[in-house]
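Predict structure. Chain length: 98.
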Amino acid sequence: MNLQVFEVFGQEKSGDPHVHVGSVLAGDVDMAYLLAKEAFTRRGEYRSLWVAPRAAMRRTTEEDAPMLKTYTDRSYRLGIGYRKTVEKWRRLQEGRKA
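Prediction complete.
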């Protein structure tokens, strides 16, 4: 039997994201699911499990790094960015009053 690594993702509560919880070594996806269920749900901490063959997953490489970089300033989406925008507007308005 040709064994392969399967990555296991678990969901604790309905609506939560599935997060990586570990790996199992199995011959097929059904056996991987059974092994994951046995290994990761003994204490009942997950309500849902996903298993996926590691070989089917795409990983980021060093060549991919520039593609993932954010080139535009999006700090306005954060609380600190909002504060900076408010400060800029105040300075602009004060300059018009003078």
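Summary: The mean pLDDT is 88.
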